[in-house]
Each structure stands twice: as structure tokens, then as C-alpha cells.
Amino acid sequence: MSLTPLFDLHTHTIASGHAYSTLLENITAAKEHGLIAIGTSDHSPGMPFGTNEIFFENYRVFPEEINGIRLLKGIEVNIIDFDGGVDGGQVMPEMDYVIASIHSHCIKSGTIEENTRAVIGAMKNPWVKIIGHLDDGRYPLNYDKIVAAALEYKVALEINDSSLRPSSARLNGPQRVAVLAEKAVQSKVPVVMGSDAHMWCHVGRLDAAQKVLQNVNYPESLVLNYSLNGLEWLLRKQKY
């Protein structure tokens, strides 16, 4: 029997500009799903109509928990060039964790070599601990190189639940997630499931991601959502 996820670190609020719930609504949903922790990870300033740095700087007002749910301070930064540059600015060191992702509004797709170099370059950033949704068919990637780099640079690869939904804008998400999971399990890379919730009703919804990992017999010890040790691994400030 599969374990129950303890946390969801990939969630968005109305501050992202294209999400539809407040932080409190997301926390309430996390509690209803039996999570012990939630991370809020609104988009960095490069996303159109999103946040600015002062939003993340003011995370200092957050309490450690709300309604019995541990509250973690994150940011989803955009990969903005083929060298792996990201737009997190000076706030990344202050975050509990940083997700780096490719978004169509922030970088045009290149060749498979260019896209792969962009992702691996982001992994080298000392503050990036998660690479988000590597499953958009509009951005061809060399998963073998990415999996090897994830081990080298001590980052977790995300299994993104939203990419598996029919409403996803990503191209061929379910097929690409399955391939990524198969490649990652062969090399025993740590993975983290994320809802990528842009509305409260998706917070903590990791069912589809769990099914993908079960299908490839992913070791539960390498699915970071299943343990407090997994959470603390993601929250370490120093990767190296």
C-alpha cells in the first residue's frame, strides 16, 4: 500500500496573477487533505502580471504554522536563457526552497541540446532544489542527461500532477511524465510530487502523480513527499 503524502510545495495564490485562491484557502485545503505542511511558491517577477521581489521579501511576516499546518516559503523561478539563468534575484537565499521551471511566457523553446543545457544550468544554481514540470512536449529534452545532472547537483525532479490533467496546457504531459519517471527510477533520483495548484481545490491532489510512480515501482524512500526526512532534504540551504 502506498504511503500518504505529507506535503505539497508547488502551489500558487492570487499573487501569481493567473491563480485564483488566497493563501488561507490553500492552507485550508491542505489541512482537509491531511497534509502536515504546505509550501507557497508563487511565480518570480519574470512571469507576466506576477509578483515582484518585495512580495517575497515580506515573507518575514509569515508564522511558522497556520491552523496546525506548517507553512513554508518558496518561489518558482523562471529559467530565462539556455545557460540556465533564472529570474529569482536577491530573494532566493531567503526562501525555504526554490523551484526552477521552464515557462512558455518566459523563454522560447530551442533545440533539444539548448533546452537541456538550460535545465542543467539551472540545477547548478546553489539555491535551486527542485526542477519543475519537465514534461512539456513543446520543450524537447534529453532526459538521460537531466537525470545524471540531477544526481550530480543534488536536485529533485518534480512529478507534476497538473501535467497529467486533461486541462493542462502542456503538450503530451502524461506521456512525458511517464518517460521521465522511467528514466529517473533507473538512476534512483529523488523525486517530489507537486500539485502545481492554481486553485485551492487542487492543493494536495497528487493522486495522478502517485499512480505514475507506482507504475514504475518507484522506491518510496526516494519519493520525498512521504517522509519528514524528505522534506528536510529539500529545505537544506546548502546543496554542496
Entry summary:
With 240 residues, the chain is α/β, with parallel strands linked by helices.
List its salient traits.
TIM Barrel; eight-stranded mixed beta sheet; alpha/beta; 14% strand; 240 residues
Explain what the structure shows.
It is a single chain. The chain is an alpha/beta fold. The chain is 29% helix and 14% strand. Helix 3 runs parallel beside helix 4 (143-153) and helix 4 (143-153) packs across helix 5. The termini are far apart. The model has no long low-confidence stretch (mean pLDDT 93).
Low-confidence stretches: none
CATH superfamily: Metal-dependent hydrolases
| Nearest-integer average pLDDT | 93
Task: List the secondary-structure elements in sequence, H or E.
Answer: EHEHEEEHEHEHEHH
Q: Strand pairing plus helix content: what structural class? A: alpha/beta
Task: State the end-to-end CA separation.
Answer: 34 Å
CATH class category name: Alpha Beta
Radius of gyration from the alpha-carbon trace, in angstroms: 16 Å
CATH architecture grouping: Alpha-Beta Barrel
- How many domains would you count in the coordinates? 1
| Largest sheet features | 8 strands, mixed
Tally of DSSP β-strands: 8
Shape: globular
Strand content: 5-15%
What would the CATH topology be? TIM Barrel
Helix content percent band: 25-40%
DSSP summary: helix tally: 7
